[in-house]
Design goal:
With 500 residues, this protein is of the alpha/beta class. It folds into 3 domains: 126 residues, Fumarate Reductase Iron-sulfur Protein, Chain B, domain 2, CATH 1.10.1060; 164 residues, FAD/NAD(P)-binding domain; 169 residues, 3-Layer(bba) Sandwich (FAD/NAD(P)-binding domain). The protein has 19 helices and 13 strands. The protein has a 5-stranded parallel sheet, with helices on both faces. It has a 5-stranded parallel sheet with strand order 5-12-6-7-8. Strand 1, helix 10 and strand 2 form a beta-alpha-beta unit. The two termini are 32 Å apart. InterPro entries: 4Fe4S_Fe-S-bd (IPR017896), DPD_II (IPR028261), FAD/NAD-bd_sf (IPR036188), FAD/NAD-binding_dom (IPR023753), Glut_synth_ssu1 (IPR006005), Glutamate_Synthase (IPR051394), Helical_ferredxn (IPR009051). Keywords: Amino-acid biosynthesis, Glutamate biosynthesis, Iron, Iron-sulfur, Metal-binding, Oxidoreductase. One of its GO terms (biological process) is glutamate biosynthetic process.
Length: 500
């Protein structure tokens, strides 16, 4: 420990964000440039160097958090980068996108604000790139074995990088026109600028990983033929089957899934279009869903210049502190304020704004719209009717509201991998009871040489779990091909987050 009393004498500090009125006018990341470095050494020095560091349990990657906290507090950025990359292929992604269950499990968090682990992580990653510490690591020799990876999200990319470095020849197949999956088209630019993704992909190409875009395996290419051409196959297609809201009026024009809306905004940023086909500009918007995807929609809507916006959450407002039923070190359900919510809250205080950032205990009962016409054969959305709900999610009898809506975005989460196309049938794969791809304890399916990594087998989860699964599946594939492996395997399919 650089400062044995750091956790007692140094208060928790977060880096500054750019002013709201500035950042909602562009798509750059919300963090103020250079805001971390002046504070990060002292924040890393708050780490207690615990005898039993529970932050390791909170993080499925098993990140060596006390080690790189100590190194950052001593200004040893090279060794900190080495220790961070020893367990995490993409810390610049997790440092920006992960909700940091490691911080909830921090021992200091028992009775004080936790160490800002996530900020230390992203500071190390960014410093490593700036200092040239991150370089390609091609294998010393090739094994002569080939592996196909279907899907280029965090699980697929992690598996591909690990297998490439083990000496296998790896090709990643992506159905979209660019590599990255939801990292590319699902995560808004203001949360993670795509230059971070592109930079890491260039490292992977330099190491030898091949990428094939615009290939929808199961539709454009027979999955069984792809398996026959390779020694092993990893399926990492994510859990992109969207949850629906089956209420009256759902067929009205102007109601869209979040994953129809967000990718179009990202494609404008990529330069594909001048304007998105679905835009919130000048519209009264209602977002149904209170999770991270809903917050991503909220930030995007604000930047597109909506006339008004309301986000609905079916659950009651969480408390500000851990509930008795959610003891440390589990990840608690507490009230959290994302950057997008901060923006909406500040804009709501403006007299000319029409923003109601979050409405809790709200159940949508039906959509109301205009009559059908030649342009809109199903009619167009005009309003959303909701009623209050109790803590158990059931409708309450007394509270009813009608919200004006020209655009409704459904951000209700996902229910497993998409069933469209012939991928599953062509490989003879089965689904488990939760609707995910069935696999055994070594990530293997019932088809010989076919493995499943990430949300396709786990269900909707966090980016840090996807990377951990990609690393573990790579170890399983390497063992299948070579008889043994030295690749790390931080999780098994049965592992679950620490929750009450």
């Amino acid at each position: 420990m650089a400062d044995p009393k750091g956790f007692l004498t140094t208060p928790r500090r977060l880096p500054p964000r750019r002013p709201v009125d500035e950042r909602v006018r562009d798509w750059n990341e919300v963090a103020a440039p250079g805001g971390l470095l002046p504070i990060i050494n002292a924040q890393a020095g708050r780490c207690m160097d615990c005898g039993i560091p529970f932050c390791h349990e909170g993080c499925p990657l098993g990140n060596l958090i006390p080690e790189w906290n100590d190194l950052v507090s001593r200004d040893d950025w090279l060794r900190a980068s080495e220790r961070l990359h020893a367990t995490n292929n993409f810390p610049e992604f997790t440092g920006r996108l992960c909700p940091a269950p490691c911080e909830s499990a921090c021992v200091l968090a028992i009775n004080q604000p936790a160490v800002t682990i996530k900020n230390v992580e992203v500071a190390i990653a960014d410093r490593a790139w700036q200092s040239g510490y991150v370089t390609p690591r091609p294998p010393e020799r090739l094994t002569g074995r080939t592996v196909a990876v279907i899907g280029s999200g965090p699980a697929g990319l992690a598996a591909a990088q690990q297998l490439t470095r083990a000496g296998h020849t790896v090709a990643v197949y992506e159905r979209d026109d660019r590599v990255g999956g939801l990292l590319r088209y699902g995560i808004p630019e203001f949360k993670m600028e795509k230059r971070h993704l592109d930079r890491r992909l260039e490292q992977m190409r330099a190491e030898g990983t091949k990428f094939r875009t615009d290939v929808d395996v199961g539709t454009d290419m027979d999955a069984a033929e792809l398996r026959a051409r390779h020694d092993a196959l990893v399926i990492a297609v994510g859990a992109r089957a969207r949850r629906e809201l089956p209420v009256a009026g759902r067929e009205l024009a102007g109601i869209h899934q979040a994953m129809e809306y967000l990718p179009m905004a990202n494609r404008v940023r990529e330069g594909d279009y001048d304007r998105p086909s679905i835009s919130a500009e000048g519209k009264h918007v209602v977002i149904v869903g209170g999770g991270d995807t809903g917050a991503d929609c909220l930030g995007t809507v604000l930047r597109q210049g909506a006339a008004s916006v309301t986000q609905l959450d079916i659950h009651p407002r969480p408390g500000d502190e851990r509930a008795d039923g959610e003891p440390w070190p589990v990840y608690p359900k507490i009230y959290r304020m994302s950057a997008a919510h901060e923006e909406a809250q500040e804009l709501a205080a403006s007299p000319e704004a029409d923003v109601d950032a979050r409405v809790f205990s709200a159940t949508t009962v039906r959509f109301e719209g205009t009559a059908p016409d030649a342009e809109r054969p199903h009619g167009g959305i005009r309003a959303l009717r909701l009623i209050g709900s109790r803590a158990d999610g059931r409708s309450g009898p007394d509270v009813e509201r009608v919200l004006r809506a020209d655009l409704v975005l459904l951000a209700l989460g996902f229910r497993g991998p998409e069933r469209d196309g012939g991928l599953f049938d062509q490989l003879g794969l089965e689904l488990d009871q939760r609707g995910n791809l069935a696999r055994d304890a070594s990530f293997a399916t019932g088809a010989d040489g076919v493995f499943v990594a990430g949300d396709a087998g786990r269900g909707q989860s966090l980016i840090v779990w996807a990377i951990a699964e990609g690393r573990s599946a790579a170890a399983a594939v390497d063992r299948y091909l070579a008889g043994s492996t030295t690749l790390p395997a931080p999780v098994v399919p049965a592992d679950r987050p620490m929750t009450a």
